[in-house]
Amino acid sequence: QGQVTESGGGVVQTGGSLRLSCTASGVDFDDVAMGWFRQAPGKEREVVAAIYTPATGTHYADSVKGRFTISRDAAENTMYLQMNSLKNEDTAMYYCAADSSSCTVSSTVDYWGQGTQVTVSS
Question: Which band of pLDDT confidence, cut at 50, 70 and 90, is reported for residue 55?
Fold first, then answer.
C-alpha cells in the first residue's frame, strides 16, 4: 500500500522561510505527479504547487508564485516545497499528495499525507 509522509512544518515569523519534505513509499515515484495542498481553518483545501512526471513541469497557485519552489529527488523518492517570504496568510495545514494525473485537483488525489502545520506569525 502506497503512502506519502510530510515533515518540516513549524512556526516562523513573517518574511521567514521553511522547507517541507514529503517522502513516498510503495509508490512508483516516477509514475506519479506530486503536489502540496493546504487548508486553513474555515477554508477549503487548495492546491499550492504540483510537479509532474517526468518532473519537467510545475504548477503554482498565484498566491505563492515567486515565493515557493517545488522540487523532487527521484533518488530519494522525496518531494520538497521551499517556502520563502512567508506571509500570515500562508498559515495552514499543508498536505502532501500524489496521483496519476496532475495532482492539482483534490478530488482526484490517490494518496494523502497526514499533514504538517505551518504557522506564520507577525
Answer: low
